[in-house]
Design brief:
Blueprint (H helix, E strand, L loop, with lengths): L1 E9 L3 H8 L7 H9 L4 H21 L6 E19 L5 E17 L6
Antiparallel strand pairs: 1-3, 2-3
Helix pairs in contact: 2-3
Length: 115
């Protein structure tokens, strides 16, 4: 069984989110949250909230135990981009792209391993 939580239009670039999220695949949900709480970055704070939502979905909607949840994937996709310009020398302008992210966390129930 797979449990999903999504967060769209997050005002942080996908590159910054992927730096943190790439280490989470395959870890238990509790271990992933404890890792994120130790990292002093905005992207880690966002992921802690999203993992909390995914865990709450698993507990309330599917009656799953938190101790058995494993991170299947953390997908960070490009969202819309704010396009701005800043004045530059000699009457020219340089573009600024303020990027957004769409994040999806997928948890699954860990299977019992035999011997």
């Amino acid at each position: 069984m797979k449990i999903e939580a999504k967060l769209k239009h997050v005002r942080i670039s996908p590159k910054k989110m992927r730096e943190i999220s790439r280490f989470l695949n395959g870890k238990s949900a509790a271990e992933a949250i404890s890792m994120m709480k130790c990292i002093p970055r905005k992207s880690a704070r966002i992921l802690v909230g999203l993992f909390g939502s995914a865990i709450a979905n698993a507990e309330n909607n599917n009656n799953l135990a938190v101790s058995r949840l494993v991170v299947e994937s953390v997908l960070v996709e490009d969202g819309p981009v704010f396009k701005r310009f800043i004045a530059a020398a000699r009457g020219s302008a340089h573009p600024i792209r303020k990027r957004m992210s769409h994040i999806r966390v997928v948890l699954k129930e860990a299977s019992e391993r035999k011997g």
